[in-house]
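SEQUENCE, STRUCTURE TOKENS:
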Amino acid sequence: MKNLITVIAVLFTAQFFAQTHEIIKHNGEKLDVNFIKFENNLVHYALPNSMEEHKISRYAVAQLTEKSKSNSKVISEKIDFSEKPDYKKVVVLKESETIGLKKAENLIGYLDNAKGETRLSRSEIGKNRLKEKAASKGHQFIVITSNKIGDLKAVAYTY
């Protein structure tokens, strides 16, 4: 019986000792959270007074600040196309890594088959064409949905 009461007491008081953090997103939004972990380009956190785990893409988060120690950790640098858009800055993500980013638009392109090209080089050319198109429109992230001959498709995301 003593053990049961001790376990219940620990469960209820643990939330009062949880470390609170502040997530600052690239779009300027601030969230007070209890940080849990980093995993697969995602930041796992829980809202204060909640045990439910939430996720956000590390690319949407600028900083994670620990309030008790005033430590601040840069999670990702903001991709900014200040001058001529550079397609090399565009990041290709998986669909699961877009949580917290805004879907901008669908990108469509065309890839033809040149004689002597390998499948790998065609895939790389297709990826670069989609990245160029996204950069020209000011989108920082893409998720490639199709990279086949005659059928290039991606979904663009931004902050």
About this structure: Residues 12 and 111 are 58 Å apart (CA to CA). The chain has two domains: 19-74, 87-158. Residues 19-74 form a domain with the SH3 type barrels. fold (CATH 2.30.30.100).
